[in-house]
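> forwarded from #structure-qc
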């Protein structure tokens, strides 16, 4: 899809103004970051980088795009002629997909001509905010499931085809094992999964006939939906009869799915019925408007559920449906010199971090797989112990401290530009990378309720630069 016009009008208005008033080759650097974690969590799982790089790499305006922009009667002919001829000149530095990222840390840094970089804002935020939101929700649900497979079932509840398809992609990055969405399955090489709907059972004269018909067509995929009429009185009993029939024919039944009712108690009783009938390997799948807290509650109650099918509350992140990532100017190149830029606000958390930055994950010196903090510094800073830092959380009591006995790992890599790293497109490799990165974080930061705040610091150099620019902005303000 051509996304050049997936852009707010004011982006083009500013670009037209830049063209009329500033050098056309003025260079700029913008950062994408967020301030608050959805669902009161402690981190976000980065997703969407592959789609961003693909779109930016192929960025151009078609004849139809230019004709539409001309029809708005807001832009000069010279600006539209400029747009008709340009192609992407921007580079991208970013965190790898699957990285757990904390508030205020740059996720992506876009560098290039000011006009071009400005026009990229809306669709980059659209992609990163959506996929990172769903990947984070998926991680929360998978974390609650304690290793039990989660099947993404949300296409019919997603806000449109793209949200369904790319949401399924993000759900896999966050930990899901499969999707019911064949578009996503085929496009991203995700295992497709699914059983039957209640309509199948209702289309036959009785439940047993429906189950037997399914087993006849799919003898090696006998996973039966048992709650159309009554889970225990008919559903599980009829499923057991069919399991015995297919077992006698040399096939292994898969299990049952419960989609309504008191799932915990129904699963406990169904498990006993299946075990008593000689089917201890038959799996119990639960579905029906589940989320991380419901999944955790079911397992805490001892519900013998083997896997989950989760739809609307995953694909829409319904409990916290927005990741408010922003796109802010960090510096501009004027007369061959990069000049740091800042946005000042009465709210300390809305003051931006200036300059070209790098994010470092700080590990214990005696354990390179145990992260203890992150540090945001200026690119090119020498990050070694001892290191004076300032807490990025402005509400903290002890702002400044010195970090000692650590190893630092830079996280941001170039993905579009002269030294670009290859982008991983195997979702399950990204998923494994994400799992490994999350495993390095302190356990207390992974709690679904009241997680500990993971320390994020600014280097003293970056903090001092920020304070200098704040003071300068306040000094030059007119009253």
């Amino acid at each position: 899809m051509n996304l050049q016009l997936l852009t707010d009008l004011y982006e083009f208005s500013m670009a037209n103004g830049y063209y009329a008033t500033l050098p056309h080759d003025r260079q700029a650097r913008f950062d994408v970051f967020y301030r608050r974690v959805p669902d009161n969590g402690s981190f976000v799982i980065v997703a969407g980088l592959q789609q961003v790089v693909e779109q930016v790499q192929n960025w151009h305006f078609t004849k139809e795009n230019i004709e539409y922009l001309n029809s708005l009667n807001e832009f000069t002919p010279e600006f539209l002629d400029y747009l008709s001829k340009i192609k992407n000149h921007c580079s991208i530095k970013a965190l790898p997909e699957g990285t757990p990222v904390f508030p205020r840390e740059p996720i992506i840094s876009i560098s290039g001509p000011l006009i071009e970089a400005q026009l990229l804002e809306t669709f980059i935020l659209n992609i990163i905010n959506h996929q990172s939101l769903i990947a984070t929700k998926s991680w929360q649900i998978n974390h609650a499931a304690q290793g039990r497979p989660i099947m993404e079932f949300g296409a019919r509840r997603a806000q449109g085809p793209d949200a369904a398809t790319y949401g399924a992609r993000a759900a896999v990055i966050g930990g899901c094992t499969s999707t019911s969405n064949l578009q996503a399955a085929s496009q991203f090489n995700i295992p497709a999964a699914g059983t039957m709907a209640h309509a199948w059972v209702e289309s036959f004269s009785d439940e047993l006939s429906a189950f037997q018909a399914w087993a006849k067509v799919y003898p090696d995929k006998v996973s039966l939906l048992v709650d159309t009429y009554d889970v225990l009185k008919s559903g599980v009993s009829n499923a057991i009869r069919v399991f015995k029939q297919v077992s006698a024919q040399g096939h292994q039944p898969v299990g049952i799915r419960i989609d309504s009712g008191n799932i915990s108690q129904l699963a406990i009783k169904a498990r006993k019925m299946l075990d008593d009938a000689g089917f201890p390997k038959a799996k119990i799948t639960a579905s029906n408007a589940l989320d991380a807290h419901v999944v955790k509650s079911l397992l805490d109650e001892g519900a013998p559920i083997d896997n989950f099918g989760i739809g609307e509350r995953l694909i829409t992140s319904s409990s916290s449906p927005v990741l408010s990532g922003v796109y802010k100017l960090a510096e501009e190149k004027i007369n061959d010199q990069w000049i740091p830029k800042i946005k000042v606000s009465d709210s300390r958390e809305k003051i931006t971090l200036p300059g070209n930055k790098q994010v470092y994950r700080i590990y214990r010196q005696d354990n390179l797989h145990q992260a203890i903090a992150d540090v945001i510094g200026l690119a090119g800073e020498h990050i070694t112990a001892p290191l004076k830092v300032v807490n990025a959380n402005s509400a903290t009591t002890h702002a400044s401290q010195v970090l000692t006995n650590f190893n630092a790992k830079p996280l941001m890599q170039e993905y579009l530009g002269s030294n670009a790293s290859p982008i991983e497109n195997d979702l399950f490799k990204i998923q494994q990378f994400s799992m490994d990165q999350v495993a390095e974080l302190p356990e207390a930061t992974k709690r679904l309720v009241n997680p500990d705040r993971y320390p994020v610091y600014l280097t003293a150099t970056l903090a001092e630069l920020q304070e200098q620019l704040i003071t300068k902005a306040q000094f030059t303000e007119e009253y």
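QC bot note: The first strand starts at residue 27 and ends at 33. The chain has two domains: 9-133+321-476, 134-315.
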